[in-house]
Amino acid sequence: MSIIMKGADVAKSIKEELVKEVEALKEKGITPCLSIIRVGERSDDLSYERGARKRMEMTGIQCRVTALPKDVSQEEFEQTFSRINEDSDVHGILLLRPLPKSLDEGPVRAMIHPNKDVDGMSPVNMAKVFSGDETGFAPCTAQAVMEILQYYGVMPRGKRITILGRSMVVGRPLAMSLLKADGTVTLCHTRTEELAQECNKAQILVAAAGKARMVTEDMVGENAVVIDVGINVDEDGGLCGDVDFEAVKNKAAYISPVPGGVGSVTSSVLAKHVVKSAKGFCKMLAQNSSIW
Ligand code: NAD
Predict the structure, then answer these.
(1) 215 lines ligand 1 (CB under 6 A)
(2) pLDDT tens digits for 151-160?
(3) In this protein, which residues make up the domain named Tetrahydrofolate dehydrogenase/cyclohydrolase NAD(P)-binding (predicted)?
């Protein structure tokens, strides 16, 4: 029987540290502030927004939401984004994605101030993650996987690690963070041959494909650590991950559940990133420098 990697426990330990840091910042006259930008009313976005607001509130971080209509023009979207980007009271910006198909994300990715880019979407932060420079921001979900491994004392160093999924928000940045931590990483995707074997040989398996319960027991090695990033709606309308939890939990050494796993840690990482950004801002003020 596996050890269940509970996101709430990881989130609690991150929160305890952050509350102290937020208090210290407030004593210096700085209230960390996250600005969420949402276009439309997608249920995924609304649910992530609710979780993020609650997490910021619990940590003492101010949270503002700017909601734009689904049919907002590219021009108005960029103008709104630019106004928030230039607001010196805002330390972090979270753009809920994917955007409606009518909007191009490229201009705002190029525009966002790298120090406010708390979900790591700018080319600057991507380059930092890919070059192993930890001064930037990795996408929160990828970083949440790293936090879970660390909390449970699972060291990536030297381990065979397979990641299922090569997206720019999860699979690829996570592969880079695990490489930085000296893991031996294999990235799998829809064209991978002998997928079950690639997964089965892993000592640490991360599923981020977005396919309900596609990781079956035979795909998991004895005593593997299994982290499930997937969030899917199953045939009964409930939430489930990419891993067949009930079958795999008897074989893995550690397993993260869905819900209650990675998703619960993502908003804590977001809060951590806002605080990191606010601390950078504070340092900049202390040095009287205009370069933040
Ligand atoms: P995506 O659709 O952008 O990428 C999915 C990746 O999985 C692709 O690289 C694709 O090649 C691969 N893939 C898909 N089906 C496959 C298959 N049958 N075999 C092998 N590879 C396959 O998705 P994403 O944005 O990276 O998200 C992945 C999952 O993680 C989704 O379920 C999403 O809802 C979830 N997610 C969770 C969080 C969180 O906080 N827990 C955050 C972001 C995304």
Answers:
(1) no
(2) 999 999 999 9
(3) 139-279
- For residue 186, count other CB atoms closer than 10 A to its CB: 17
Q: Ligand 1: which atom is nearest the Cα of residue 44?
A: 34
209 lines ligand 1 (CB under 6 A): yes
Q: Is the pLDDT of residue 97 over 70?
A: yes
Plot region of 144 (φ>0 → left; ψ -120 to 50 → alpha; else → beta) = alpha
| 146 in Cβ contact with 175 (< 8 Å) | no
Which residues are annotated as part of the binding site for NADP(+)? 165-167, 231
Q: Which domains are present in the chain? A: 30-114 (3.40.50.10860), 140-263 (3.40.50.720)
The answer to whether 159 and 165 are in contact (CB under 8 A) is no
Element of type H or E holding 286: helix 262-286
Is the CB–ligand 1 distance for residue 229 below 6 Å? yes
Dist. CA 211 → ligand 1 center (Å): 7
Encode pLDDT of 227-273 as tens digits: 999 999 988 889 999 999 999 999 999 999 999 999 999 999 999 99
Q: ipTM greater than 0.90, yes or no? A: yes
